[in-house]
Predict the structure.
Amino acid sequence: MYNRIRELREDHDLTQKQVAQILNMSQTGYNQYEIGRNDLPTRVLIELANYYHTSVDYLLGLTDEIKPYKRKNAKKGNFFP
């Protein structure tokens, strides 16, 4: 999982600092996710999946399909946009 978030970041030509700003956190905190020192909270997984237009399953290594799933229409507040 940690390699996937690093690879996606690099594929999008982003620095750790830029991704940390997107997630509203410090670069040091984000770095801890990339090196596997800290587990990614669900909120962060969802935000990264949305940002990179992929699925949480892809980020977690449960699938190699990078395309996101078709989303169900959800009521506002039922997921993190």
